Amino acid sequence: MYPVSDAFRDAVSASCQTAVIKASVLLGDDILGDLLVTGGSVTMDGTSDGVLRSLSLTCAPDPDVWEWITAAGAEIQAWRGLTLPGGDELASLGVFVLDADPEEGMSGSVTISAADRSKRISRAGWIDPYAVAAGTDVGDAITGILRTCWPACPIGFGQTGKLLGSPALFQDGSGSDPWKDARALAATAGLDLYFDGDGVAKLRPVPDPATADPCMTYSDGDSGVIVTGKRVALLSQLYNGVIATAEGSGVDVPVRGECWDEDPTSPTYRYGPLGQVPYYYSSPLLVTQGEVDSAAQTVYARIKGRTEQRAWEMVPNPALEAFDVLDFVAIDGTHTRYMLDLLTVPLDSANMPVTARKTAVI
Question: Do 307 and 233 meet the contact criterion of CB atoms below 8 Å apart?
């Protein structure tokens, strides 16, 4: 969850609130100007293997807008927030790079589609093969990739204490994707690589839906939550374990790691009625037992608990992000927790659609 004040938390679920929406065009350290936003949204998709945040935006006619957004290297930062008694408070929704050609309508309005800064890294395909030495700290290795692709990339992590078990070599060419390579390196250490709401590259353990603390609590009858009643049983995505195998060039003897639902009270318990249903993962970057174990745990955290999915709409809370856990308290005191997989923050007066997986009933 994006850091906000207690006053923001109290006000964001109120039925009556004044939203503040802002979008600026950036070029390096300079602000070229602000856009007059007339519509659009920011989508955060925790199920994606690539871009976490994407922007769709329409802005009102302005003689300078076209020049701003078509400047080479221009980015757009978007915010949504509230007007509070002490002034406006904004949550940054991301810093975005155009990933489609902007369009200007007959009226002069401009439509923009953009992706978060991971797109910068993906686009900087390898010109030559890129090598990382064995024994390199994973954090240093990822920093090297990001800064090679984009020297000014803001990075919010350091060393991880996890070392690569063997050399890594990423091939050059039109199909190369340094962002995919960097995320694969992160997975060897049991970590997830992403760009946060402020456009800073971050590493984190993939949140475990069974143990993650809720960031917001809503009670039955709260005017800020509108439950649509849509419920989906995710039988096609129902796994209760991950088997990760090493394919690195330094592997002489097959190495594999496993992570299973070992909770006897869980509906997906590996020895329960479901049986063992593994998800298989492999990578040429995995070499050691520790790396395959970390990768299995990381991938399992991404798919764990997806037995039931719910979708609802709510008055927008722009501080929420993918992987946040919400706690809903029923009139009888029962707590039901959901981990957010997909949410779309509107840049207009619309409600905010959310898709989440149920993680616990307490």
Answer: yes
For residues 171 and 143, give the distance between their C-alpha atoms in angstroms, rounded to a whole number: 18
Enumerate residues 6+ apart whose C-beta is below 8 A from 278.
239, 240, 241, 242, 243, 258
Q: How far is Cα 181 from Cα 176, in angstroms, rounded to an integer?
A: 9
Q: Tell me the three-class secondary structure of 182-209, residue by residue.
A: HHHHHHHCCEEEEECCCCCEEEEECCCC
Contacts of 353 (CB under 8 A, 6+ apart): 311, 312, 313, 343, 344
Distance, C-alpha 252 to centroid of its chain: 35
Task: Provide DSSP, 122-178.
Answer: HHS--SS-EEE-TT-BHHHHHHHHHHHH-TT--B-----S-B-SS-EEE--STT--H
Those residues with Cβ within 8 angstroms of residue 229's Cβ, 6 or more apart along the chain or in another chain? 312
Q: Reduced to 3 states, what is the DSSP secondary structure of residue 11? A: helix
The residue to which tokens 């962002």 are assigned: 179
* Rounded Cα–Cα distance for residues 33 and 218 (Å): 38
| Site of tokens 């994407």 | 54
Which residues have C-beta within 8 Å of that of residue 156, sequence separation ≥ 6? 196, 200, 201, 202
pTM of the model: 0.82
pLDDT, tens digit only, all 362 positions of the chain: 999 999 999 898 776 789 999 999 999 999 999 999 999 999 999 878 789 999 999 999 888 999 999 898 999 999 999 999 999 999 999 999 988 778 887 678 899 999 999 999 999 999 999 999 999 999 999 999 999 999 999 999 999 999 988 888 999 988 899 999 999 899 888 899 999 999 999 999 877 777 788 999 887 766 557 656 666 655 666 788 999 998 766 666 788 999 998 889 887 888 988 888 898 988 877 888 888 898 888 888 777 766 567 788 888 999 999 999 988 887 788 888 888 989 999 999 898 999 888 776 66
Place of tokens 């039109």: 174
**Residue type (1 letter), 235:** L
